[in-house]
Design brief:
- It is a single chain.
- By secondary structure, the chain is mainly beta.
- The protein has 3 helices and 58 strands.
- The chain has a domain at 674-842.
- The strands form 11 sheets. It has a 9-stranded mixed β-sheet, with no helix packed on it.
Length: 842
């Protein structure tokens, strides 16, 4: 045949050349140890021939064309559609008898011969006593009947050549078979129809162990309920050889299996008999015949070994292995018809767990129970760590509703105890207009930040259809009194650790509908007196949503000042508008403002309550996010005023104390005029005619039954006194040379406490009239021990003679001008005093 003048399309291995509808040309370079066959289909057009080479060296033939030299070869077809006449068979020999094979990956080329039906063949040879091991990665292979086709039209066939050719089976991808071992020599073929894409599937070829089985199949049965079919070799015409075939099945824990014979053809045995042996996980062995029922409802891994006889008529067996969950499921009826707006969702936390969940008898990995529904749940082999329950409650709060008037308490409703632990609860608050005011039922709210995270139930607050506002928790040390959110809001409660939220009793938060405002979020903050109060922009550490704003109303106590520090700042590049930070005192219109292109100060001090507002622009790059903190400090000037006042008071008290001490010391100083008793020559006598019949220690003249104090007015001076003459000195006018006769008188006598005058003023008085002597009358007060002449009367503290002291101190009365001789010996620490001795005056 003459060559065609064509344009060239070049590939790595293949070149296809088209000239016209009557000519088809390709260039092929076979891989090493690979043969490319162009095989003619039976009964096809004989006028289409395949030619090799060009020019004088071109050879054509109407039969198959074989290419095995790894050189570039040109193939010409004298028809326009050679794919309808020829198929391409690419065969590769893999010899593991000398060098061995270590899991060589086999990867079919998906770019060749797309206009032809392709068959890829791998012939693998190993030592006679070993097996060819084929490993199929997940999801494995699935066996089908030879007459069936795979869904993706990529069909695999495995053939054994131990004692003649035997078709082991036909397989598709996505199955339970993970390994097949064929004794001595085997072939794997892959057929892909014309115009079908090849789905590359890498399987591994290696030298398997020695075995007495002609074929051994490993299958890993899936968890849950499944049904898998398996077929004996040469299933269509029957297996004749006296060989053993073994299937190994791996069954998931908590699963049971059942073997069922779907279709069987018993052979006509010349020698031997057909037997089936089951080896269970507990090492027990069950020997059966084809007429006996196979094992059912058993658990654990097992193997099935089929021993054929030497038959004239072949053995065919199609059996099914079904797997289902063992044990008794836990039933859980759920009725949400009574709880308005409540929906539930149950899902498996670990997909690899053996927990099986069903809703209305249907196995599900995640179950959604809509509101106002009634379903039947069941859980099989599910532990507390396998499942998690999430609940959502929708609350509509239109104007005029109880939510708008008195607020609504966000509580977790009672759920069926058969349900798993409640991992998350969400309230969806929907308001047609206005804003939602959130506050804690247990103290204030604390915003969780890395510097101080929540260690209890956390509330994730978000705008519905908007951004995340932040995470909060109820805390006695919280500083947020309430949060106002513009429009609809979502509040999600998340427990700390593995806590069950259904154990939370009572209201957690309170929501009230309030009028709408311009900002997206408004906080009322009562800063902590001790420690830091953190403020973060919504969606922190990510940026605020474009064109949104947030305001904090910070209440500062009167005796404190607030120190506001911006600790973490991210400024955007604005496409339109500006990102602004503003501070305004509560009762002032003076505003401090900074834009995104300005540097915020390190600290701002506010001495009264203030508003802090932050608004974002439409950023073109970066984000607007701010973390700030507030610290309260006592006002310094108040401390200075208090200290000065205290110091002034202390100085005043010190001056007063000094004055008092000085006055007291001055009064204690002895006077120049001292009282004394005149002692004339001779026997000592007292002024007047009075004598002491006995010593003072022997009489009772100093004992009084009672004391009557009645102040009187002195008739001579007009001054008040207690019967004593005070502040006036009268010299002695009595006789000096002659002593009147002394009349004995009773030692007990009384003193006249009248006005100092008797009815008979001319009568002789034993004692001088108080007005004519400096000696005072004896006071009617109890005296201290009379062993001395020191007398005490607290009423005489103001007397210039200081005879009586109000403080109890004893001042002796001097009875002679000779102080050293007449001074009484006073022991202030003793209750007894000695009577002084008097000498005659010279």
């Amino acid at each position: 045949m003459g060559s065609c003048l064509v344009s060239v399309f070049t590939g790595l291995i293949l070149m296809q050349i088209h000239q016209n509808s009557e000519c088809y040309k390709i260039e092929v370079t076979p891989d090493r140890a690979t043969t490319v066959f162009f095989r003619r289909k039976g009964g096809q057009d004989l006028n289409c021939s395949a030619c090799k080479g060009e020019g004088p060296s071109e050879t054509c033939q109407n039969s198959d064309l074989k290419l095995d030299d790894p050189v570039l070869t040109t193939v010409n077809f004298n028809c326009s559609q050679p794919g309808d006449v020829f198929i391409v068979e690419i065969s590769q020999d893999i010899d593991c008898t000398a060098t061995g094979c270590n899991n060589n990956a086999v990867h079919p080329d998906s770019t060749r011969f797309l206009d032809f039906t392709r068959t890829f063949i791998w012939d693998v040879k190993v030592p006679a006593s070993n097996t060819v091991q084929l490993d199929f990665p997940a999801p494995g292979m699935r066996q089908i009947k030879p007459s069936e086709h795979c869904l993706n039209k990529n069909t695999y066939t495995i053939i054994s050549y131990r004692a003649g050719r035997a078709n082991i089976g036909t397989f598709c991808m996505n199955g339970t078979i993970s390994r097949i071992q064929v004794l001595y020599k085997g072939r794997v073929s892959l057929e892909v129809p014309k115009g079908t894409d090849l789905k590359p599937y890498d399987f591994k070829v290696s030298v398997g162990p020695e075995s007495k089985m002609s074929v051994e199949v490993d299958s890993k049965l899936p968890r849950g309920e499944s049904f898998e079919d398996f077929f004996t070799p040469e299933y269509t015409k029957g297996f004749l050889r006296e060989d053993k075939i073994k299937w190994n099945f791996a069954v998931e824990p908590s699963h049971n299996f059942t073997v069922k014979y779907l279709d069987k053809t018993e052979p006509e045995c010349q020698t031997g008999a057909v037997s089936i042996e089951y080896l269970l996980e507990d090492k027990s062995v069950l020997k059966k015949t084809l007429k006996e029922d196979p094992p059912a409802n058993k658990n654990g891994d097992f193997s099935m070994t089929l021993a054929n006889c030497n038959a004239k008529k072949g053995l065919s067996l199609n059996f099914e292995v079904s797997v289902f969950r063992g044990g008794t499921p836990k039933l859980c009826p759920v009725d949400l018809q009574k709880e308005e707006g409540l929906s539930l969702q149950v899902e498996k936390k670990n997909p690899m767990s053996y927990c099986e969940m069903r809703m209305n008898s249907l196995v599900q990995e995640k179950t959604v129970i809509p509101e106002r529904s009634k379903v039947e749940l069941s859980f099989l082999d599910c532990s507390a760590d396998d499942l998690q329950l999430m609940a959502t409650k929708t609350i509509d709060c239109p104007s005029g509703s109880p939510c708008a008037v008195s607020g609504t308490d966000l509580t977790i409703p009672s759920l069926d105890t058969c349900l798993p632990a409640l991992h998350q609860f969400t309230w969806l608050l929907r308001v047609p207009e206005g804003s939602i005011d959130l506050s804690s039922k247990q103290g204030n709210l604390h915003q969780s930040v890395p510097e101080k995270e929540c260690n209890q139930v956390t509330f994730l607050v978000s705008e519905i259809g908007g951004s995340n506002i932040g995470q909060f928790c109820s805390d006695i040390e919280g500083s947020i009194q309430n949060i106002q959110i513009k429009g609809n809001a979502s509040i999600t409660a998340i427990p700390k650790g593995a806590q069950d939220l259904s154990q939370e009793k009572g209201p957690l938060l309170k929501a009230i509908l309030k009028p709408e405002f311009s900002e997206n979020v408004v906080y009322t903050v009562l800063p902590l007196v001790m420690g830091f109060t953190y403020l973060t922009t919504p969606n922190w550490p990510d940026g605020m949503m474009p064109s949104t704003s947030v305001t904090w109303a910070v209440v500062v106590p009167s005796d404190y000042r607030a120190e506001l520090v911006f600790t973490n700042i991210s400024q955007p590049n604005c496409a339109s508008g500006h990102a602004v930070v503003e501070i305004r005192p509560l009762d002032s219109q003076k505003i401090q403002s900074w834009r995104e292109d300005q540097t915020l100060p390190s600290m701002v001090i506010q001495q009264q309550s203030f508003y802090l507002n932050m608004s974002n622009c439409e950023p073109k790059s970066k984000r607007f996010a701010v973390l700030s903190k507030i610290t309260l400090q006592r006002e310094t000037r108040n401390f200075v005023g208090i200290i000065l006042a205290v110091v002034g008071i202390l100085l005043l008290l010190l001056i007063i104390a000094l004055i008092v001490v000085w006055v007291i010391r001055k009064k204690k100083k002895p006077k120049a005029n001292r009282s004394s008793i005149y002692m004339p020559r001779g026997k000592p006598i007292l002024p007047g005619n009075a004598t002491f019949p006995k010593t003072r220690a022997d009489n009772d003249s100093h004992v009084y039954a009672s004391i009557e104090d009645q102040p009187v007015v002195d008739g001579n001076t007009g001054h008040w006194s207690n019967g004593h003459q005070v502040d006036t000195y009268h010299p002695y006018t009595g006789p000096t040379d002659s002593i009147p006769a002394v009349k004995e008188s009773s030692p007990e006598y009384t003193l006249d406490r009248g006005d100092g005058r008797s009815e008979d003023q001319d009568a002789y008085q034993p004692f001088l009239n108080p007005t004519s002597t400096f000696m005072p009358a004896r006071p009617r007060t109890p005296l201290i021990s009379l062993s001395s002449l020191g007398l005490e009367d607290r009423r005489m503290a103001q007397n210039e003679l200081n005879t009586f002291k109000s403080t109890g101190d004893i001042i002796p009365i001097r009875l002679s001008t000779d102080e050293s001789r007449l001074q009484p010996q006073l022991d202030s620490d003793s209750d007894s005093f000695h009577e002084p001795e008097y000498e005659e005056a010279m």
